[in-house]
Design goal:
The chain has 433 residues and is of the alpha/beta class. Strands 3-2-1-4-5-6 form a six-stranded parallel β-sheet, with helices on both faces. Helices cover 45% and strands 14% of the residues.
C-alpha cells in the first residue's frame, strides 16, 4: 500500500519507518526543510533506540522517502496519516489543533478519491468531525473518510510498541475505510495483535482515558511512597504486593519524582478541558494533575533536606535530565522543576545525561553540563539520581563518593539500596523506603 505521513516528528517518523518495514511504500512529509534534508542524510531529529538503523534500511530498500511537498506526496495514497504536534495551548491547557487543521486544509485539495485520512496525532474528542468538515467544505465532490487511529508508543521503546502492540484502535463507521486500515495493519493482524474498531469519538477518547489512567497509577504510588516514609514501610514491597493482583497489574507502580514527557502532562490537561467544556468534571484526573505538579517541586525540597535544610552556596549534581531513560525528550521533565527549586534556594547545579544534555542546555542554561556522572559529582555536596538510565545502575559508588565534597546521595528512582550506599560512605536517601 502507499502511505503518506504528514509530520515527521516522533510519532510520524517512528510510524512511517515501521510501516515501511512492513513492506508499504511510505513518504514522510514535513514543512521543516532542514529536518527533511537531515533525514535524507540519515540524521535523526530525535533519539530513539533502533530508529536510525530502521530508517536507513528502509530508505536503502526504496520503501521510505522524505519530502516537503505535501500535494505530490499524497497523490495515489491509500491512507494519509496526520501526525503533527498537538501541544498544550498557552493560557488554557487546551490541545493546540492549529497544525492538524492546517494539514487538513492542505490535504483537501490534494488527496485522490477514496483516500482514508487518519488522525494519528493525539486530538480531543470531536476533532475528526472538524477535520472531515474542513475537507468536505473545501472539496465537496470527493469521496474520502476520516479515521481515528491513536498511537500508544512509549518513548525509548517505540519501535517494539509499534510492531508488537497491545492493541490497534481504529475509529470509523465506514466499512471501506475499515478495510483499508485492516490492509495497512495486516502484518500485525497476522501476528494476532487485536484490532479494535469503534466509533471515531470513542477512539479519540480511548487515547486520553488510557494516558490519564496511567498517570493516575504513577501519582497513586508516589503518594503511597510519601505515606511509606511516614509509617516506616517500603513502597517497593507495597508496589509488588498490590501489583501482583491481576486487577491492578505491576506496570506504572514505580515511585519516583513524578511523570513528564510529551504525552501525560498535555493529555491530562486536555482531558480536563474537554470535561470542563462539557460540564462533566473528572475530579480524579484534576487531583492527579495537581499532585504531580507538587511532586516535582517536593523532590527539589527532598534534596535540600538531605543537605541539612540549607542549599545556598552548595553544589548539587543531578544524574539524568530527560523525563525517562532512552530518550532525549525534556518536555515537562521532573528535572526542570527540581532545578528551579534548587536554584531558588541558592544552589549551584551540575548535571549529566547520556542523551539529553544538548536539549537541556537550552532549557536550563544555569546548569553546568558534565561529560560523565563522576565529572558532575566533582566537588558536589549532594548527588541526586533523577532519571534511571542504565548508565547509572552500576556506578562505582566509591569513586562517586571520592569525587564529592559532601556525602548525600538522593536516589529518586530507588536504583540502589541502603547497604550499598552506606558501604561507599554515603548518607543515602531514597523514595518511599
Amino acid at each position: 500500500m502507499k502511505i503518506a505521513m504528514i509530520g515527521s516528528g516522533y510519532v510520524g517518523l517512528v510510524s512511517g519507518a515501521c510501516f515501511a518495514d512492513f513492506g508499504h511504500m511510505v513518504v514522510c512529509v514535513d514543512k521543516d526543510a532542514d529536518k527533511i534534508a537531515r533525514l535524507n542524510d540519515h540524521i535523526m531529529p530525535i533519539y530513539e533506540p533502533g530508529l536510525a538503523g530502521l530508517v536507513k534500511n528502509n530508505v536503502d530498500a526504496g520503501r521510505l522517502h522524505f519530502s516537503t511537498d505535501l500535494a505530490a506526496s499524497v497523490k495515489g495514497c491509500d491512507a494519509v496519516f496526520i501526525a503533527v504536534g498537538t501541544p498544550s495551548r498557552r493560557g488554557d491547557g487546551h490541545a493546540d489543533l492549529s497544525y492538524v487543521y492546517a494539514a487538513s486544509e492542505e490535504l483537501a485539495g490534494a488527496i485522490d478519491p477514496k483516500t482514508v485520512v487518519v488522525t494519528k496525532s493525539t486530538v480531543p474528542v470531536g476533532t475528526g468531525d472538524e477535520v472531515e468538515r474542513i475537507i468536505r467544505e473545501a472539496n465537496p465532490a470527493i469521496e474520502f473518510a476520516v479515521v481515528s487511529n491513536p498511537e500508544f508508543l512509549r518513548e525509548g521503546a517505540a519501535i517494539g510498541d509499534f510492531k508488537r502492540p497491545d492493541r490497534i484502535v481504529v475509529g470509523s463507521n465506514e466499512e471501506w475505510a475499515k478495510d483499508v486500515m485492516r490492509a495497512v495493519y495486516r502484518p500485525l493482524f497476522l501476528n494476532e495483535s487485536p484490532i479494535i474498531f469503534t466509533s471515531r469519538r470513542s477512539s479519540e477518547l480511548i487515547k486520553y482515558a488510557a494516558n490519564a489512567f496511567l498517570a493516575t497509577k504513577i501519582t497513586f504510588i508516589n503518594e503511597m511512597a510519601d505515606l511509606c516514609e511516614k509509617l516506616g514501610a517500603d513502597v517497593q514491597d507495597v508496589s509488588r504486593g498490590i501489583g501482583l493482583d491481576n486487577r491492578i497489574g505491576s506496570k506504572f507502580l514505580h515511585a519516583g519524582p513524578g511523570y513528564g514527557g510529551s504525552c501525560f502532562p498535555k493529555d491530562t490537561l486536555a482531558l480536563l478541558k474537554t470535561a470542563q467544556d462539557n460540564e462533566t468534571p473528572v475530579r480524579i484526573v484534576s487531583a492527579v494533575v495537581e499532585a504531580n505538579d507538587l511532586r516535582k517541586r517536593a523532590m527539589g525540597r527532598k534534596v535540600i533536606a538531605a543537605l541539612g535544610g540549607e542549599a545556598r552556596g552548595k553544589k548539587v549534581a543531578l544524574l539524568g535530565l530527560t523525563f525517562k531513560p532512552n530518550t532525549d525528550d525534556m518536555r515537562d521533565a521532573p528535572s526542570i522543576a527540581i532545578v528551579q527549586t534548587l536554584l531558588d534556594a541558592g544552589a549551584h547545579i551540575s548535571a549529566h545525561d547520556p542523551e539529553g544534555m544538548a536539549e537541556a542546555a537550552n532549557i536550563l542554561p544555569q546548569v553546568t553540563m558534565a561529560h560523565s556522572a563522576y565529572d558532575a559529582a566533582a566537588g558536589a555536596d549532594a548527588v541526586a539520581i533523577v532519571t534511571e538510565w542504565d548508565a547509572y545502575r552500576a556506578l562505582d559508588l566509591a569513586q562517586l563518593r571520592a569525587a564529592m565534597r559532601g556525602d548525600a546521595l538522593i536516589d529518586m528512582r530507588n536504583i540502589y539500596n541502603v547497604a550499598q550506599a552506606e558501604a561507599a560512605g554515603f548518607k543515602y536517601v531514597s523514595v518511599g523506603r
